[in-house]
Amino acid sequence: MNTDHVTARTPLSQYIADGKAHPLPKVLGPISITFMGIGAIIGAGIFVLTGTAAALYAGPAVIVSFVLAAIACGFVGLCYTELATLIPISGSTYTYTYISLGRFAGWLIGWTLILEYSIGAATVSVGWSGYFSRTLATLGLGIPPRLAAPTGQLVTLSDGTTATALLNLPAVAIVAVLTFLLVRGTSESSRVNNLMVTLKLAVVLAFVLLGAPHVDPANWRPFVPPNEGTFGQFGWSGVLHGASVVFFSYIGFDAVSNCTQEAKRPQRDMPIGILGSLAVSTVLYIAVAAVLVGLVPYQKLDVAAPIALGVAKIGLPWLQLFVDAGALIGITTAILVLLYGQSRIFARMAHDRLLPPVLAQVHPRLQTPWISQILIGVAVAAVAGFIPIELLSELVGVGTLFAFILVSFAVIRLRTLEPTAKRPFRVPAVPWVPLLGVLCCLVLMAGLSPLTWAWLASWIAIGLVVYFTYSRRRAPTPKHRRSRSMG
Q1: Each residue's pLDDT tens digit, 392-403
Q2: Which ranges constitute the DSSP H helices of 30-163?
């Protein structure tokens, strides 16, 4: 049986040459790339998951849970950094997998990444809509309930009656605005992201600095509450369970690797961007967790807005509106980075003929993959506006963990396939560090529900149909691929 379509891979030097034949403008420096990472990582999770993990699983030791989750992400982050500096081409995990494990594995992870980026952006957009509606309500304004929920969902009207929603208009609107911004240009989008991340950091720091003087050390005791007889509920098993919960607060740093082809000096800028955004986010997460469980007894933090309880303890009414605005800004930057990343992955797959070549077109004046970006925007807006996506939210996590595993294996594989390639950044102790990253991801995946695995299997089945009916036939054979560059 001919397995060329499965194992076909392009040598590293050839793939990089092909990618450089279709350049994108190099407009991103280390600060902008780091802010892209922070923008993707610090979203609503810092305002919600901290309280949930403390109240249900780890108690005040949720601080340790964040450290453990950061270590797990650090293993994978080192792998992303080596590959981003070795392969200065857009496409992130898809590109790394294609080069190291072959075309079929590249397609599989590219298809799976749609769950992380597109479905993730749609899920976060719905969250943005909820925060936006609540913020308007505090200002005495409001959006008709039938225009603030997915199509068909029951909503309560102002007169107390119920009706079915027509459209989640705020979710559609934020996706449309950010898509327009991304089509206009990467540098413009980066400047807006930098501003929003600066404001978000100001909100987080304000909570930490204003809350620290009001901390009651008694709330930190016992630091590790005794186990209640169930694995994962307090005790050190609860700390580990808490780490698996807050791990998903860190998802997003991988999207930074999509900036590689637009980085001014990728060999310098990408390590700063990936590892720097992880480091800054970890420090802020730990600081917020320490202050929150110091302000409020951990038993009371299992609420939708735990930070609001902390703000009430501080006694500054204006701070709550400030924090709500910070959460809104935080979610906005996460949507922007996810939309950006998905368009670059689609464009790279289109260069490799696994998707229609039109998706790889770069606008002659704006210098962005505009068709890919618009297609992603329309799809995400449709999902966010019309479809209840609660069942799909867990797929964001499983898609990300699957990508992390393949990236870790890609480092090991490329050390064998391309041993003499120049690596500006090298993961230490290969293969042990990448294997530790794989182990961490497998442990987290084992805790996912059977329904999540069923959805993932269904999604992959659809992807296989697309691959064998379209992509396999359109993509050039290995011999063809060696004879000419992609155009």
Answers
A1: 555 667 778 888
A2: 30-41, 45-53, 62-86, 92-101, 103-114, 120-138
